[in-house]
Amino acid sequence: MTLPFQTLEWTGDALLLLDQRALPEKETMLRFTDAPGVAGAIRTMVVRGAPAIGVTAAFGLVLSVRADGAAGRPWREAFREAAETIGASRPTAVNLFWAIERMRRAAASLPDDPREARRMLEREAVAIRDEDVEANRRMGSHGAELLPDGASVLTHCNAGALATAGYGTALGVIRAAVAAGKKIHVYVDETRPFLQGARLTAWELMKDGIPCTLITDNMAAKLLGDGKIQAAIVGADRIAGNGDVANKIGTYGVAVLCRAHKVPFYVAAPCSTIDPAIRTGARIPIEERDGGEVTHLMGKRIAPDGVAVCNPAFDVTPARFVSAIVTEKGILRPPLARALRDLFR
Ligand code: MRU
């Protein structure tokens, strides 16, 4: 299945990113040629979604090494500085730190010649990108069996091709089920306050011809109560060693609602999203974003000036609400702590 858009594209001397802030109105590719620009693109959500952030970070580090050595200082210095700047862009998605660490490890054994170093770093970033697409496809083929033919499936935020190097995690599983011939309908939570569901998931599914219905976040309970949803599937930004899942704010509510209605709640994420160093979800750093995202809707004020605002971008769903985690290595089932331990053994 070839998708009719590309989230990111590496040209050899620049990283092109589909500006996700402008969707669904405009499809614009923005061009980035240095690491601070790439860090800014992650921070301002030109690109978002845990795996896509990781891949973007890897190419940002390639861009920090000037092949002509024109920066007038050893490439390692620029690389180190770029790793810090990019690493400070967003705190929750562990894929960012995973990709930086992988690039750091690759950089450790490289020669002093910047041209050679950049070539090898580029090879590593391309591998990270390609492995991400491959992992998503594998997740799809493992996870498709979880979705019954004829099911309506609820999803929250955007865990699709737009959030990865291609194909998607949660939407990848849905894509694979559809490709296997199943009739699947998707209920798309709009995902307040940044509207990743309304702006991105609905756009991506419609581009792909997968039937979907947009709902506001507070409608999910009614639809579940009416028996209209047979499964929920979401992505993840970080999974702790005990199986607690950090994902877009509102995910926890969806999981609790699913449990109350005896509907399975699935998470699809590559192993690069699992952080076994963090024992429980309580230790996952949660990004707090600008209050303007809550007080304003598409640039227009909807709340009184000066009102106090709380805007955590993610929440943590306790492992006990998760029916299964789909990874590229297979489906993990409860008890998740044990399944995750076995996975990393
Ligand atoms: O703030 P965002 O848009 O980067 O948040 C994205 C999510 O929460 C996704 O569900 C998650 O990163 C998984 S993407 C495959």
Task: Explain what you see.
- With 345 residues, the protein is an alpha/beta fold.
- It folds into 2 domains: 8-137, Four Helix Bundle (Hemerythrin (Met), subunit A) (Up-down Bundle), CATH 1.20.120.420; 142-344, Translation initiation factor eif-2b, domain 2 (Rossmann fold, 3-Layer(aba) Sandwich).
- It contains 11 helices and 16 strands.
- The strands form 4 sheets. It has a 7-stranded mixed sheet. Strands 11-8-9-14 form a 4-stranded mixed sheet, with helices on one face.
- Helix 1 packs antiparallel against helix 2.
- The model has no long low-confidence stretch (mean pLDDT 97).
- Bound molecules: 5-S-methyl-1-O-phosphono-5-thio-D-ribulose.
Number of domains: 2
User: What ligands can be seen in this structure?
Assistant: 5-S-methyl-1-O-phosphono-5-thio-D-ribulose
CATH architecture of the largest domain: 3-Layer(aba) Sandwich
Q: Structural class, from secondary structure content?
A: alpha/beta
Assembly state here?
Answer: single chain
Give a quick account of the main beta sheet: strands, pairing sense, barrel closure: 7 strands, mixed
Total beta-strand segments:
16
Stretches with pLDDT under 50, minimum 5 residues: none
If you compute it from the alpha carbons, what radius of gyration comes out, rounded to the nearest whole angstrom? Answer: 20 Å
| CATH fold-type name of the largest domain | Rossmann fold
Instruction: Tell me the name of the CATH class of the largest domain.
Output: Alpha Beta
**Termini gap:** 34 Å
Strand content: 15-25%
Mean pLDDT metric: 97
CATH-assigned homologous superfamily of the largest domain: Translation initiation factor eif-2b, domain 2
Helix content: 25-40%
Order of helices and strands: EEEHHHHHEHEHEHEEEHEEHEEEEEH
Number of helices: 11
In what order do the strands lie side by side in the largest sheet? Answer: 6-5-4-7-10-15-16
Shape: globular
